[in-house]
Specification:
By secondary structure, this protein is mainly alpha-helical. It contains 7 helices and no strands.
């Protein structure tokens, strides 16, 4: 009975990883799109978007914690699926880059949330102030440098692990390399480059889910 229960657990592990990854992708993509449509790309913009788009931005900020929970679940279940195939070096970079990505994302969300709270308390003094400019520049740097770069590193290590362990098709791993290069070296030049990461995680999760159903049948 114990062996049967363990086999059932192992069979369901890829499915749990796929569902968590897809949930993360949808939530993060929705949050990114809402932010992109609500906040100007120029960090020097005086802040008029706070008057018109505060509710949309607040909705995006509320989606990010749930996306983070799904991402942690995705990492944990994916590592569990690798099991003894996991290489210590790549596992460290994989796990570390995922946590750094998530930490940078949460700090960015906290800065933007603090801006919304400060604006609600005293809108006239915040707009155009030095405090607003600092917070806006901080959120811009965190998102476009640290969040994007850590997402690129996570994609490189995950693609490498996928090549060595065959947990995903080879074309998806090479596709991950190409998208990671875009994030690492061109993320600052393409306004919508951040949607690349949730899109790739969604494709990876979909591939894992399809493979799980093939094995089950």
């Amino acid at each position: 009975m114990a062996t049967a229960g363990l086999s059932t657990l192992r069979l369901r592990t890829p499915r749990a990883a796929a569902i968590a990854g897809m949930l993360f992708s949808l939530l993060l993509a929705a949050a990114f799109v809402l932010l992109r449509l609500s906040v100007p790309a120029d960090p020097q913009e005086p802040g008029s978007w706070l008057r018109t788009n505060s509710q949309t931005i607040a909705l995006a900020m509320n989606l990010i914690p749930f996306a983070g929970i799904a991402f942690l679940w995705f990492i944990g279940v994916l590592r569990d699926r690798l099991g003894e195939q996991e290489d210590r070096f790549f596992a460290t970079v994989f796990f570390g880059s995922g946590l750094l990505f998530l930490g940078s994302l949460f700090v960015t969300a906290a800065v933007v949330g603090a801006l919304l709270m400060a604006f609600a308390a005293n809108p006239e003094e915040l707009i155009g102030s030095a405090t607003f400019q600092f917070a806006r520049a901080l959120a811009y740097a965190l998102m476009n440098v640290y969040v994007v770069k850590m997402a690129g590193v996570f994609m490189v290590t995950t693609s490498t692990i996928a090549l060595y362990t065959a947990i995903a098709p080879r074309w998806l791993a090479f596709f991950g390399y190409a998208l990671a290069i875009l994030l690492l070296f061109g993320g600052s030049f393409f306004v919508w480059s951040f949607v690349v990461f949730p899109l790739w995680v969604f494709l990876l999760s979909l591939s894992i889910l399809a493979d799980n159903f093939r094995r089950a049948t």
